[in-house]
Every structure is written in structure tokens, then in C-alpha cells.
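user: can you give me the structure for this one chain? C-alpha cells are fine.
assistant: on it. calling the predictor now.
[tool input]
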Amino acid sequence: IKHISIGMETASERMLKLTEKDIKKEDQIHCAEALAKHGIWPLYYWITGFPTETPAEINETLDQADKLYDIHNGKLTQNFYAYTALPGSPLFELVDKSQLPQTMEQWSNYSLNQTLDVRASNLYHIGGLHFHRGKGDKTDRNFPGWRRLVIWPFEAMASFRWKKRFFTHFGFEKKCIERLLRWASLRYENKMRKQKLKLKDVDIADWGVRENKPDIGARGEYDTGEICK
């Protein structure tokens, strides 16, 4: 095993109980130590924006992510998603349903990173750019060579925001980042067309933005959602 994905979700003990995760903060540490000991590169998934979650509890999760980063000496990937209130989930009854989609079409556009919780939505990009700066990581793959200079200012600002825990007034930066990610994904799509490859045959941008183009085997339209191989 070289890589493994793990849903850590949150480092708040109260949120762990509320979401019925059945783990504790120390379990997350022990897990990271075991993986680091054997040189396994993990992908940790975190969630913020839970119903009733406080700013202090969000910071617990972010502090834990920093601890895991240190345990792995930076050899890990961490993604931060906004809580998505889905019918039937443990926290659904705690959500203001008037703010949720009301039709199937609306639900289809309700993504893991674009929600009404502005801070959680901003963390998707800020945390991603902060933790994906290593060689061969997502940002490096999406912006190879000289193209890295284009996204670099936003990487630097994301790291500054992360360290200062400053996640508001992010609108302009977010629009720029999303435009750059859209550009990255379209580059990969053009590469597919030229080489006559199918979607699964090319390493497209994990953070990119794809358009719904049936002629190249698109799997739907994404605003800023994660795209896998």
C-alpha cells in the first residue's frame, strides 16, 4: 500500500459524536503516526460547516490538520469540504431546510464545496492550495512548468490566510482561482481531443472545472468540484 484515503471529517469531539463517526481525536493521531512510520501517503478528508458547529470547533479541526501535516513531514494530501446536508443523514434535522434545494435539478447543482456556508466554502480553496504545494501534488499537476507562476500568488495568499485563520473577504481571490482551475481543466480536455483519448485515460486536473461535453465523455458539469481519473 502506497496511498490511502481516510475520512477524518472533524477533530471536534462533540462533532465526532454528533456525526456518529465513532472515533476520537487521539485515534486520528495514532492513525497518522502508523501511516507515517510505514511511509504511506494518505489523503485525509475534513469537513467544516456542520450544523451547530462553533468557530472554536472549526479551529480544532484546522489545528489537527496542522498536527497531521507535521507527523507526515508534509508528505500527505488534505482536502477540506463544506458540510452537505443530505436527507437521511444524522444531522439533517438540525439544518434550516428552507436554505436547501427543493427540486432534483437544484440538488444536482449542490456540490461539496459550494454551499451557503461562506467560510466552509472558502476553506475548500484555501486549505487545498495551502496543503497541495508539494512537487507532484495537485497544484503541481494542474499548473506544470511556467504555469505554476500564475497560481503562485494565490498559493502564497492561501497559506497566509491559513496561518492567520482568516477566511472571509475571499470573493475576488476565489473567482480568480476558479477561473485558473477552469483553464487547467480545459487544457487537459484539449489534450484529450488531440490525442483522441477517453476521459479515464488522462490525468485531468483534480481541482479543475469541466464543461458538460458529451463528445469527450464528460461526466457532468462541475463548478469547482474535485475530478478524479
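assistant: here you go. Residues 171-195 form the longest helix (25 residues). Helices lie at 13-18, 25-37, 55-71, 104-108, 118-131, 138-142, 148-164, 171-195.
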